[in-house]
Description:
The protein is of the alpha+beta class and about 100 residues long. It is built from three helices and three strands, in the order αβαββα. The chain is about 40% helix and about 15% strand.
Amino acid sequence: xxxxxxxxxxxxxxxxxxxxxxxxxxxxxxxxxxxxxxxxxxxxxxxxxxxxxxxxxxxxxxxxxxxxxxxxxxxxxxxxxxxxxxxxxxxxxxx
Length: 95
């Protein structure tokens, strides 16, 4: 009785479907951020869902993510990635 038992219920593969929907949302919003050169803020999400968004956007060049807010009102912002000074001047990072 001292141990907690955590149970996850996944009715009709809901978690996998939700994860794929979130990945699609992340790609779509990243494209919108790149196209319009403006940050986009998503609706509040739980930690599990925010992690899916962060992970998906991590692989898209030119954009980055960060979270704002607290507790139940924590949201993700998809923003343009800031370029380093060496990239702006045309210097190669391989030099």
